[in-house]
Amino acid sequence: MVTSKPALPEQAAALLAELRGLIESARQHVAQTANATLTMLYWRIGHRIGVELLKKERAPYGEEIVNAVSSQLTLTYGKGSE
Predict the structure, then answer these.
(1) 46 contacts 62 by C-beta, under 8 angstroms
(2) Is 49 helix (H, G, I), strand (E, B) or coil?
(3) How far apart, in whole angstroms, are the C-alpha atoms of residue 65 and residue 28?
(4) What b-and-e string marks burial along 19-38, b requiring 16 or more CB atoms within 10 Å of the CB?
(5) Residue 17 CB: number of other CB atoms within 10 A?
(6) Rounded to whole angstroms, how far apart are CA atoms 82 and 78?
(7) Residue 20 pLDDT greater than 80, yes or no
(8) Nearest CA to 64 among 77, 53, 75?
């Protein structure tokens, strides 16, 4: 049996369309904000390791430091999405 949705009065349909637009806009804003925040976080982490810890040089111990820090952060926060 196929059931159809009852027809909405024109005013209710317009309100529903507006509310859907608001929800979609808010979702998009949240996604953009989260992406920008994560990008800044990753840049700061890289900057801290590269400039402040390694003094802008490729130190032989640099890879060991990055691996050790990565392991500790993974234990605390889990693995990032792949």
Answers:
(1) no
(2) helix
(3) 37
(4) eeeeeeeeeeeeeeeeeeee
(5) 11
(6) 12
(7) yes
(8) 53
